[in-house]
Automatic annotation (TrEMBL), chain A:
Part of the multisubunit transport protein particle (TRAPP) complex. The heterodimer TRAPPC6B-TRAPPC3 interacts with TRAPPC1 likely providing a core for TRAPP complex formation. One of its GO terms (biological process) is endoplasmic reticulum to Golgi vesicle-mediated transport. Its main location: endoplasmic reticulum. It comes from Acanthochromis polyacanthus. The keyword Cell division does not apply. PANTHER family: TRAFFICKING PROTEIN PARTICLE COMPLEX SUBUNIT, TRAFFICKING PROTEIN PARTICLE COMPLEX SUBUNIT 1. Gene3D superfamilies: 3.30.450.70. This is Trafficking protein particle complex subunit.
Automatic annotation (TrEMBL), chain B:
Signal peptide: none annotated. May play a role in vesicular transport from endoplasmic reticulum to Golgi. Belongs to the TRAPP small subunits family. BET3 subfamily. SUPFAM superfamilies: Ligand-binding domain in the NO signalling and Golgi transport. InterPro entries: Bet3, NO_sig/Golgi_transp_ligand-bd, TRAPP_component. Transmembrane segments: none annotated. This is Trafficking protein particle complex subunit. It holds the Pfam family TRAPP. PANTHER family: TRAFFICKING PROTEIN PARTICLE COMPLEX SUBUNIT 3. Its main location: endoplasmic reticulum.
Amino acid sequence: MTVHNLYIFDRNGNCLYYNEWNRKKQAGISKDEEYKLMYGMLFSIRSFVSKMSPLDMKEGFLSFQTSRYRLHYYETPSGLKFVMNTDLSVSNARETLQHIYSNLYVELIVKNPVCSSTPSLDSELFSSRLDAFIRALPYYSPRAA
Amino acid sequence: MSRQSNRTTDSKKMNSELFTLTYGALVTQLCKDYENDEEVNKQLDKMGYNIGVRLIEDFLARSSIGRCQDFRETADVIAKVAFKMYLGITPSVTNWSPAGDEFSLILESNPLVDFVELPDNHSTLIYSNLLCGVLRGALEMVQMAVDVKFVQDTLRGDNVTEIRMKFIKRIEENLPAGDE
């Protein structure tokens, strides 16, 4: 059980925030390249699933899994995208991502008048609170990884 | 979502008179700083816009409302949820245009103008114009371009306060340039 990493993208595809916890293997490309690929993939998946959907969908794309990890996706109506990779034992991280949005992002970034959210978040308070929150998650346990 | 409902109930109560007076002081100061009413109206709209683009995140986080399916639903959410949450009033939604892209919010009471009388030399001042900016800014962040303006105002002798909203277009999301 563990959390690998977390991305926050704004509506224009800029990566506002990135952090990793138990990520043992790197992609071998620059971080910027990785963000772009990640955003591009999400963008494509999102438009693909909405085209394939037999009915109008409200939430759309929520997560996918491979043999090694599961990617959890949460998008706000304002276009912010929260992406968290965990191992397969974490079945649903939606509440976690919503919590990060409504209790951390909105409280510490949006309501902070000196904190503009472009192009990357520059708030130590946000980073440290988020880090503490992730580490306190029931499924965050590096040793079991 | 028990967590979110807890958050809504423990949100701090604020004295509405203090709020009204603070807004009045703001408008008064703007009237001193700018030459004419048009300029003040413009500034109020701009300030409202900047509030709106941030306020929408707070709104989404607190109300946990998803994307609206059509403009009618948007109108309902604005009137019944947003105005209720931030101003404690529920305007009525009326006067739909036949095409369904334009409607009016009728405010029976407007907490911003509780103690206000417009002096004669400010006849073109749109006192509550901040609200237009807030609505425009907030909706822009959820991919909706709208035109918002006051068409009636009790301050100027009308019976009710009426805000007219016109849907202009959906702002499409595009891949950032250079990304294939």
